[in-house]
Amino acid sequence: SQHPTAFETLTLHKNAPVSSAENIFYSLLNLANISMPTYDSTKSYASGAFKSSSQLMIGENKAILKPEQVK
Questions:
Q1: pLDDT category of residue 34 using cuts at 50, 70 and 90
Q2: How deeply is 57 buried, as exposed, middle or buried, from its count of CB atoms within 10 A (0-12, 13-18, 19+)?
């Protein structure tokens, strides 16, 4: 279909790398149909405009780490 449902869109992005801190907030706004001036559809994995983002974690001493740096 031209306009996939939220379920279909989520299924398309199910294996895409996401950053929970960055993507969950925007995805919940999208699914709840809540708009705000700073909403960015490329950060919502429920959006057709979604773009994968870097996965980052906070480690010891508040260091920002990529997944491959975590053992």
A1: very high
A2: middle
